[in-house]
Amino acid sequence: MNNINVDKSKFVFTQDKGVIYDEQLKTKAVGYYQDAWSRFKKNKASLIAFIILIIIILMSVVGPHLRNYDLTSNSESRKWTDRLKEMPPRISGLEWFGFSGHKTLEGFPARFSILLTDPNAEGIIIGDFSQPNAAGMVKVKVDYYKYVDYINSYESVFSLSIKEYNLIKAYENENPGDKIIITDAPEVNGTYKVQIHFFKFLEVVYGHSNQDFWFGSTIAGDDLFTLMWDGLSVSLIIAFMVAAINIIVGIIVGSISGYYGGTLDLVIERISEILSGLPFMAILTLLLLRYGNTTWIVIIAFTLTGWLGISALTRAQFYRYKNREYVLAARTLGASDIRIMAKHIFPSTVGTLITSLVLYIPGVITSESTFAYLGIINYSNAQSFGALLSDGQSRMMSAFHLVIFPSLVISFMILAFNLFGNGLRDAFNPSLRGVEE
Amino acid sequence: MRNYILKRVFLIFITASIIIFLVFVFIKMLPNYHAAVLGVDPEIRKILEEIEGYNKPILEQFGIWVKNIFTTGSLGRSLNRARDVTAILADRIPISLRLNIVPYLLSIPIGIGLGIWAALKKNKLTDHLISIGVVIFISVPTFVVATLLQYFVVYQLKWLDTPFVLANIDFAENIARGLASYAMPVIVMTIGSVAGLTRLTRAELTEVLTSEFMLLSRTKGLNKKQATVRHALRNALVPIAPSLLGGFVSILSGSLIIERIFRVEGVGGIYIEAFNNRDYPLIMGYLMFYTVIGLFAGLIVDISYGIIDPRIRVGAGKR
Questions:
Q1: Do A411 and B294 touch (CB under 8 A)?
Q2: Are A98 and A233 in contact (CB under 8 A)?
Q3: How many alpha carbons fall within 13 Å on the CB side of residue A398?
Q4: ipTM of this complex
Q5: Which of B11, B135, B283 sits opposite A437 (nearest CB)?
Q6: pLDDT value for B311
Q7: A75 CA to chain B: closest CA distance, Å?
Q8: Do A155 and A278 lie in a common domain?
Q9: Same domain, yes or no, for A332 and A244?
Q10: pLDDT in tens, B163-187
């Protein structure tokens, strides 16, 4: 040992008077949910997923109303939509991003040379002709919106009803100089066979103000943008309804069978064992065959056996907590069974349940859209994502937009749900962090 | 163990019987069932009534249906194909099996391998990349992956000339082209099952790697590799192996979505056709087949759990 000499005067008491008490904590109390939220916020991927989800859900509500496209809702205007089929996507301002409304057409050179010479067709052809293929066909890039307007205005003769004709005439009288009719003709048997400026006609008579199809149009001439968000809202409503019903039924059945145990539990277990052997596909197809294709039947099919998983989960959680000391204490104090179940055990299980619920919703959406894709689920009032994609698939060579937009949205949505669910699970149960990814 | 297996088999038998009975009664009670099935030809009508007892009460019809399965192997006569359902299923099962077996065999080594790799490199770049891939491929629905693949391979890159799997006749004509047409469905199915398997393996292995016996095995002198292979991997595979066995049974029932997208004439494909044509006997036959396969797969999983890990006996009581 070395002897170190230190001057005694250098030693000073840090605390020579008074007593040290425990200081009050200056931090705020953090509750269970606050704690979970703060952990959740740290997970950037989940937070982004959460934001994407909110945007998608908002779009499913407001999306269908962003475009005032109602040509297809009216039986009289419906006949014109056929001429607007498979329009490529166009958004003014986003032309550089592929929303240009351009399309590559294939045909004989003679077909396109007319477009080059006619002054009315100016600006239609954008790209150069390709080399002719074996059959003598060439490919050329056109501004498809102008092209559709041109062929319908200058290369077609329409049969207009008296009502439509009169509306045009009224407009022309009000706005002299703004002509819609190119070549006029007299009425024969209630129709006028005339040439008209097509887009202008749709705008004046049906209020279709030559708007762009943001995501393009479908085979029937519907606006894909409107249709998609409509279909999405149906899918989401089904998913949320199914999740809500399943979680309510599952929690009630699961907590009763978990809490009381014994014979009741045994009976419920046997029933769920048989129910869980019923394939979902069998339930769905039988119900649809019997009661027809409506949203309600689909919801019932999903809930008939869907609660089993949540019930099993709740039951396991109740078995885990029902003999804890705090439950015993509550019972000693005279709390009723319902109070113990609702106030003491249930809050301990809620984290697991929320997580499984959030991870359950994308499952419902996936299988709903899968069966819609297969044509087994087929609503009368809306087209689910699966059905949209299935329709688009047959035309994807010429109209890829019919496939890519629904694909992207549904994939992003399910991905966001899964990431969000994983984040929630990590937040509620940090010990499981990353175990199941 | 023997008693356990017997008990499980018996329970499965009971469950299957109840489910099949329920489905049978439900189908028979569909509003337009009789008119659709019996048709207009009085001769066929007479034969059907004789063989399948359509004029008798439903309970008796079920008895006759079950009896026919055991005596003649018949599951009833399909309306659209005018053949016995058993024969149709027997035709289709090999096709589904042929399509499903390659992805099944491919996905096991790839899935487990990736899972192990991710678990060993936990929280490193490799792990993150694999985990991101897994989440993406689990989330994106099969029909989206398949459709996009078809678009790019067939229409954009023109590697294949058809987005569908060739039928048997065309297959025999040009075998190389036929085999190539199997590439896309195989890729789609492999990706799907690899993602699930990777996730499962990674989860199990990371859990085992942190357990105490791993520390013990290191303490007794094994190096990291030895400890991982001999102790961790073995324990991690306990819950994975049964699900692989169950998966093998499940591939018999085909895949509705893959067979629809790639126009494969398999068991799943026939079901869509039967549903669209309201071919009730065929629907009944397929649902029965599907239910039995599903229950059987579950049984295999449970029993193999018991064999591989005797601590777990599902429903074996408290002993």
A1: no
A2: no
A3: 13
A4: 0.86
A5: B135
A6: 62
A7: 28
A8: no
A9: yes
A10: 787 777 777 777 788 788 888 889 9
Is the pLDDT reported for residue A377 higher than 50? yes
Q: Which of these ranges, A91-105, A230-244, A299-313, has the smallest mean pLDDT?
A: A91-105
Class of residue B5 by CB neighbours under 10 A (exposed 0-12, middle 13-18, buried 19+): middle
Amino acid occupying residue A108: F
Domain ends where: A177, A206, A235?
A206
Query: Average pLDDT of A14-39?
Result: 76
Instruction: Give the separation between CA A16 and CA B178, rounded to whole angstroms.
Output: 93
- Judging contacts by C-beta atoms under 8 Å, the chain B residues touching residue A281 are 256, 287, 290
Domain end (from A142, A177, A206): A206
pTM for this structure? 0.83
Q: How far apart are CA B25 and CA B105, in angstroms?
A: 39
Question: A284 to each of A54, A290, A379, how far by Cα in Å?
Answer: 30, 10, 14
Pairing of strands A181-183, A191-196: antiparallel
Higher per-residue confidence, A78 vs B255: B255
pLDDT band at A434 (very low <50, low <70, confident <90, very high): very low
The answer to whether the beta carbons of residues A102 and A142 sit under 8 Å apart is: yes
The CATH H-level (homologous superfamily) assignment of domain B95-276 is MetI-like (1.10.3720.10)
User: A383 with A425, same domain?
Assistant: yes
Per the structure, the complete domain to which residue A111 belongs is given by 77-206
What are the pLDDT digits (tens) for A70-95? 676 666 667 777 777 777 887 777 77
Count CB atoms within 10 A of the CB of residue B283: 24
- The number of C-alpha atoms within 13 Å of A342 and in the hemisphere containing its C-beta is 7
Query: Which whole number is the average pLDDT over B257-274?
Result: 86
Interface test with chain A among B24, B144, B205, B258, by most A beta carbons within 10 Å: B144
Residue of B nearest to A408 (CA): B144
**Distance from the B135 Cα atom to the nearest Cα atom in chain A, whole angstroms:** 7
CB contact under 8 A, B19 and A411: no
CA A379 to chain centre: 16
pLDDT tens string B282-313: 888 888 888 888 888 888 888 887 777 666 55
Nearest in space to B273 (alpha carbons), one of A285, A155, A351, A221 = A285
To the nearest whole angstrom, how far is the Cα of A266 from the nearest Cα of chain B?
A: 11
| Residue A34 forms part of a structural domain | no
Residues A98 and A241 in one domain: no
For chain B, give every domain's residue range. 95-276
The answer on A328 and A252 residing in a single domain is yes
- Render the burial of B121-140: b for 16+ CB within 10 Å, e for the rest: ebeeeebeebbebbbbbbbb
Query: Can you give the three-state secondary structure of A314-373, one letter per residue?
Result: HHHHHHHHCCCHHHHHHHHCCCCHHHHHHHHHHHHHHHHHHHHHHHHHHHHHHHHHHHHH
CB-nearest to A375 from B29, B261, B276 is B276
Residue A435: its pLDDT value, please? 45
What are the tokens at B294? Answer: 């599903």
Q: Name the amino acid, one letter, at A435.
A: V
Amino acid (one-letter) located at B161: D
Does position B24 have pLDDT exceeding 80, yes or no? yes
A102 and A240 housed in the same domain: no
Interface test with A, best of B147, B197, B256, B295 (most A CBs within 10 A): B147
**pLDDT > 70: what percent of chain A?**
94
Contacts of B83 (CB under 8 A, 6+ apart): B77
Q: Which residues pair with A102 in a beta bridge?
A: A143
Q: Give Cα A29 distance to the centre of its chain.
A: 38
- If asked whether residues A187 and A97 sit together in one domain, one would say yes
Enter the tokens of residue B44. Answer: 């066929």
